[in-house]
Amino acid sequence: MPIVIARTPTDDLGPVVAGGIRADPLLMAHSAAEMLTASAILGEGARRALLALDAPDSAYGCTGAARRLARILQTSGHEVRATVARLTASLEGDADRLYRIAFAWQEADESAARRVAGRRQPGAVAGMDRPSVR
Q1: Which of 34, 47, 132, 133 is deepest in the core (most CB within 10 A)?
Q2: How far apart are the C-alpha atoms of 51 and 126, rounded to whole Å?
Q3: For residue 99, which of 1, 4, 18, 15 has the smallest C-alpha distance?
Q4: Mean per-residue pLDDT for 31-36?
Q5: Residues 91, 42 contacting (CB under 8 angstroms)
Q6: Phi and psi at residue 6, in whole multiples of 5°?
Q7: Tens of pLDDT along 110-128?
Q8: Whole-prediction pTM value?
Q9: How far does the chain reach from its first CA to its final CA, in angstroms?
């Protein structure tokens, strides 16, 4: 997975840069997409693997030990399905949060760029996003 945050030498971007750390929203969004892909791969892989364990009780034989083994495998399969569901939901939630953070960083970058550009234009008012039209 790519590194999302990198140190950059900036001194005039305000809230976008905190302690010299700057985030790349594009890399964050790419990482979020990779998390969604990983979630889908995990879910599909587990589903396929568990299909191999699905067998009728008669496939295990008719002894008491065979019936116990069948119940253990069924219970384990249910537990694995539940665990995989929690993992995929967690990955999807993390991806969603990462998308939101990337969007917020992008907005902050754009806002800071407008502020910096406004300070560099002669006659621009600090804090204004756009010059007024007369």
Answers
A1: 34
A2: 64
A3: 4
A4: 94
A5: yes
A6: -135, 150
A7: 888 888 887 766 655 555 5
A8: 0.64
A9: 50
